[in-house]
């Protein structure tokens, strides 16, 4: 693994890129931010799996794009010219990458899309299938940028100039290929002189809000204030927040939404203070096959992320029991709207989300 160091604004970096000549997936290592902007080059399945598991590349859409480039690179290395043997090895690598993180549906969504390229083109020579896999992965990345921008346009209709916006975790440019999802209305508003005041929750235990959201918004000239996770009630009670925008890792058919741990607390507090909560969700994150939030698998992460990581010395008694779910489910009745690239879904979500899929031929 080699690295590249440059000094430029964080917004000029590509979160995820393909270097086809070098057979490398190139990612901005998010575990090093905000201190160091370091591009790392990943070549093997193990390196890609580890980068996803360790959150070097993170955020549901970025994970999806990384997996698409990753499986293309792994497919490219398969030696056989015989389709069945090729597909068998492709499926093995696909399952391996898919096991890196369970909650963000974009991982399996992107890998399934890549798999369909193989199965639909099984009569073609393997070399042709590999070319099509590359085209699909590149298309997936370009689509992500368009989708995020469209979410931004729809999200922007929900707020007005000068509004206070609270966000949790990082559903920003760093979590996507551009604009972010929850930050897309903020960036588009910034371009149009809306002068939002943004509050970024720090987002314990991995500090995506402090390290990533506050960093990218600040670097973009947005008026951003970093707050600890336990301060959202205080800022809402002060009347400083007009809307909450968050991202998501999986939206169930009834609108229940899994997002970074702590989102449901923000949503419950927001209800108390009559602040609308909007979930920004590309349709790639909406999983109509999962009926409710109860069926969403919540990733459990290791204790050291809570007790030691990001501290100079351990901040909890050695050996203490730790519960570290990476995500929680926000019940659909706490969500004022789900902002997709095709428009805003409202209650009853079972109908409105399905309508979006039917209308845009997204049901397979
Ligand atoms: O564990 P992470 O950092 O991958 O969690 C990310 C989030 O929870 C984001 O809010 C979500 O993936 C949406 S990103 C547009």
Topology record:
Layout: E1 3-5, E2 16-19, E3 24-28, E4 38-42, H1 45-53, H2 60-76, H3 83-98, H4 105-120, H5 126-156, E5 164-167, H6 184-191, E6 197-201, H7 208-219, E7 223-227, H8 232-237, E8 243-246, E9 250-252, E10 257-260, H9 263-272, E11 277-280, E12 286-287, H10 304-307, E13 327-330, E14 337-340, E15 343-345, H11 349-359
Parallel strand pairs: 5-6, 5-8, 6-7, 8-11, 9-12, 11-14
Antiparallel strand pairs: 1-4, 2-3, 3-4, 9-10, 10-13, 14-15
Helix pairs in contact: 2-3, 2-4, 2-5, 3-4, 4-5, 5-6
Bound molecules: 5-S-methyl-1-O-phosphono-5-thio-D-ribulose.
Residues 55, 58-61, 104, 169, 171, 175-176, 180-181, 208, 247-249, 259-260, 326 line the site of 5-S-methyl-1-O-phosphono-5-thio-D-ribulose (MRU).
Task: Explain what you see.
- This protein has 364 residues and is an alpha/beta fold.
- The chain has eleven helices and 15 strands.
- The chain has helices spanning 45-53, 60-76, 83-98, 105-120, 126-156, 184-191, 208-219, 232-237, 263-272, 304-307, 349-359, and strands at 3-5, 16-19, 24-28, 38-42, 164-167, 197-201, 223-227, 243-246, 250-252, 257-260, 277-280, 286-287, 327-330, 337-340, 343-345.
- Strands 7-6-5-8-11-14-15 form a seven-stranded mixed sheet. A four-stranded antiparallel sheet has the order 1-4-3-2. It has a four-stranded mixed sheet with strand order 12-9-10-13, covered by helices on one side.
- Strand 6 (197-201), helix 7 (208-219) and strand 7 form a beta-alpha-beta unit.
- Helix 2 (60-76) packs antiparallel against helix 3, helix 2 (60-76) packs antiparallel against helix 5 and helix 3 runs antiparallel to helix 4.
- Residues 1-5 have low confidence and may be disordered.
- Bound molecules: 5-S-methyl-1-O-phosphono-5-thio-D-ribulose.
- 5-S-methyl-1-O-phosphono-5-thio-D-ribulose (MRU) is lined by residues 55, 58-61, 104, 169, 171, 175-176, 180-181, 208, 247-249, 259-260, 326.
């Amino acid at each position: 693994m080699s690295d590249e160091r440059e000094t430029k604004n964080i917004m000029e970096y590509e979160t995820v890129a393909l270097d086809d000549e070098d057979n490398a997936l190139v990612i901005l290592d998010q575990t090093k931010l905000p201190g160091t902007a370091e591009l790392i080059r990943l070549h093997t399945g193990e390196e890609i799996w580890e980068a996803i598991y360790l959150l070097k590349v993170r955020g549901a859409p970025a994970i999806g794009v990384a997996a698409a480039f990753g499986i293309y690179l792994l497919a490219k290395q398969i030696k056989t010219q015989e389709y069945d043997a090729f597909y068998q090895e492709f499926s093995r690598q696909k399952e391996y990458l898919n096991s890196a993180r369970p909650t963000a549906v974009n991982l399996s969504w992107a890998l399934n899309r890549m798999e369909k390229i193989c199965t639909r083109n099984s009569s073609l020579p393997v070399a042709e299938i590999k070319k099509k896999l590359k085209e699909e992965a590149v298309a997936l990345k370009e689509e992500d940028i368009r989708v995020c921008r469209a979410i931004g346009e729809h999200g922007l209709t929900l707020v007005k100039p000068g509004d206070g916006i609270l966000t949790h975790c990082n559903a920003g440019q760093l979590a996507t290929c551009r604009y972010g999802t929850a930050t897309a209305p903020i960036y588009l508003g910034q371009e149009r002189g809306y002068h939002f005041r943004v509050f970024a929750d720090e987002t314990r235990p991995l500090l995506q809000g402090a390290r990533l959201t506050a960093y990218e918004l600040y670097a973009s000239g947005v008026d951003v204030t970093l707050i600890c996770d336990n301060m959202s009630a205080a800022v809402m009670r002060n009347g400083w927040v007009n809307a909450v925008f968050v991202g998501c890792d999986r939206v169930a058919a009834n609108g229940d939404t899994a997002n970074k741990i702590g989102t449901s607390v923000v949503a419950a507090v927001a209800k108390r203070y009559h602040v609308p909560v909007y979930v920004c969700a590309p349709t790639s994150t909406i999983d109509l096959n999962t009926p409710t939030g109860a069926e969403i698998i919540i990733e459990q992460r290791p204790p050291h992320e809570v007790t030691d990581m990001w501290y100079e010395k351990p901040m909890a008694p050695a050996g203490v029991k730790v519960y570290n779910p990476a995500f929680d489910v926000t019940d659909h009745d706490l969500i004022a709207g789900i902002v997709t690239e095709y428009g805003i879904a409202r209650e009853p979500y079972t109908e409105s989300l399905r309508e979006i899929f039917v209308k845009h031929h997204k049901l397979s």
